[in-house]
């Protein structure tokens, strides 16, 4: 990885929308017609679709898409040496309200695809790079508390921070000045969206006040799973990149390990073991995060 720039103050930097990268006049980004005609479907869900357009581009588009994913990727690329997809354009079509993220098509495959067939030596090589990446992200100081880029609310839908609630008394997704404020919001919103949790609210309040304390805001990818890690094995080593930055924000320091452990799903392979070579374990906190997630979704 290249040395990151010395000026990494998040408070003084933002990405305006719409965004078009005009630094390379030889790059012709795909048109809407080309994007919608693509049969190279990489991923599709209810809110967005990801397609390949030629050998150079990947495009993510949809009405439910949040362009913060592209803004985060640009910000990380500008302020660190971490490999991320180069963003060529971020915009919303005013006619149909479809949003577009046009980005570089990276070489390689996801670590999720590669993991079953790579050696322990290759796993070690990948994890060493990932640890360096995590350390570089942690060095990005918060603009103030727990928040996303430009001191906006936390973006994570896992804890129901997406959007606002019709009841103004329901705490929003931030920003939060203290961990106690964040804890209060997590529990209030969980009980609001999940009726069965209301009777357990006092119990969780007691637990959170003891377990979730003294964790500084730390910049995190927000969805650190193998499906969001690209690897390209070369004779000289391996290129590692992170994709899908929509949940990146300044989370409590325990958050990245806890949610990454959740991403191990049924622990059907040894990824959870290698994860501790990348991230410092937060076992006590992770157990309670996993318990709350199970309460919310299972």
TrEMBL record:
SUPFAM superfamilies: Protein kinase-like (PK-like) (SSF56112)
Highest taxon of the lineage: Eukaryota
UniProt KW keywords: Kinase, Transferase
UniProt-recorded Gene Ontology molecular function terms: kinase activity
Transferase is among the record's keywords: yes
InterPro entries: AGP_Transferase (IPR051678), Aminoglycoside_PTrfase (IPR002575), Kinase-like_dom_sf (IPR011009)
Every Aminoglycoside phosphotransferase domain range: 75-271
Entry protein name: Kinase-like protein
Lineage, highest ranks first: Eukaryota, Fungi, Dikarya, Ascomycota, Pezizomycotina
């Amino acid at each position: 990885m290249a040395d990151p720039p010395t000026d990494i103050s998040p408070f003084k930097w933002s990405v305006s929308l719409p965004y078009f990268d005009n630094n390379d006049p030889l790059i012709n980004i795909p048109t809407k017609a080309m994007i919608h005609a693509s049969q190279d479907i990489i991923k599709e869900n209810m809110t967005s679709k990801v397609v390949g357009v030629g050998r150079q581009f990947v495009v993510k588009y949809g009405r439910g898409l949040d362009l913060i994913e592209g803004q985060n990727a640009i910000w990380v690329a500008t302020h660190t040496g971490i490999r991320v997809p180069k963003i060529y354009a971020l915009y919303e079509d005013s006619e149909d309200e479809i949003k577009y993220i046009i980005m570089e098509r990276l070489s390689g495959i996801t670590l999720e695809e590669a993991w079953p067939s790579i050696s322990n030596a290759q796993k070690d090589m990948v994890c060493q790079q990932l640890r360096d990446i995590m350390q570089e992200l942690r060095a990005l100081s918060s603009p103030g508390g727990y928040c996303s880029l430009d001191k906006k609310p936390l973006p994570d839908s896992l804890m129901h921070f997406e959007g606002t609630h019709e009841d103004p008394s329901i705490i929003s997704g931030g920003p939060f000045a203290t961990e106690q404020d964040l804890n209060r919001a997590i529990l209030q919103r969980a009980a609001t969206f999940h009726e069965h949790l209301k009777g357990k609210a006092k119990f969780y309040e007691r637990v959170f006040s003891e377990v979730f304390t003294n964790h500084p805001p730390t910049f995190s990818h927000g969805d650190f799973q193998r499906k969001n890690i690209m690897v390209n094995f070369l004779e000289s080593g391996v290129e590692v990149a992170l994709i899908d930055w929509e949940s990146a924000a300044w989370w409590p320091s325990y958050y990245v390990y806890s949610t990454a452990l959740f991403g191990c799903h049924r622990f059907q392979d040894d990824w959870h073991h290698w994860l501790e070579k990348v991230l410092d374990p937060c076992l006590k906190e992770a157990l309670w995060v996993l318990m709350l997630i199970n309460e919310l979704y299972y």
